[in-house]
UniProtKB/TrEMBL annotation:
It holds the Pfam family YbaB_DNA_bd. Gene3D superfamilies: Nucleoid-associated protein YbaB-like domain. GO terms for molecular function: DNA binding. This is YbaB/EbfC DNA-binding family protein. InterPro entries: YbaB-like_sf (IPR036894), YbaB/EbfC (IPR004401). It comes from Actinoplanes utahensis. It comes from the Bacteria. Transmembrane segments: none annotated.
């Protein structure tokens, strides 16, 4: 027995696939371009990170002459950890904005 092919369903599936691919490409561009700035607990170090998790800038707001190396290292670890969390948050937010309008397969 031959199966009937639903051409409209196939066309819709292909169109949906193309839309998802286009959205994914846009999401990847947005993730690479969107930046978030975070500061160390003492506000002396600022890290700028993309939503992809790439650190693009580190700024030191206070001089380093009078800082203990262990104190500086502690602040640096804290700000890098915050940057990773901020990147994850930004990715999730962008994901919701880009893909939030897609209907699930069950909704079709």
């Amino acid at each position: 027995m031959a199966r009937e092919i639903d051409e409209a369903w196939i066309d819709e599936a292909i169109e949906r696939y193309r839309r998802v691919e286009d959205l994914h490409a846009g999401f990847e561009k947005a993730v690479a371009a969107h930046t978030v700035s975070v500061h160390s607990p003492d506000q002396s170090i600022e890290v700028v990170v993309t939503a992809a998790g790439d650190i693009v800038d580190v700024r030191i707001h206070d001089g380093l002459r009078h800082r203990e190396p262990s104190e500086f290292a502690r602040e640096m670890r804290a700000v890098v950890t915050s940057a990773a969390e901020a990147a994850r948050w930004a990715r999730e937010k962008l994901h919701g904005e880009v893909f939030g309008s897609l209907r699930t397969l069950e909704e079709h």
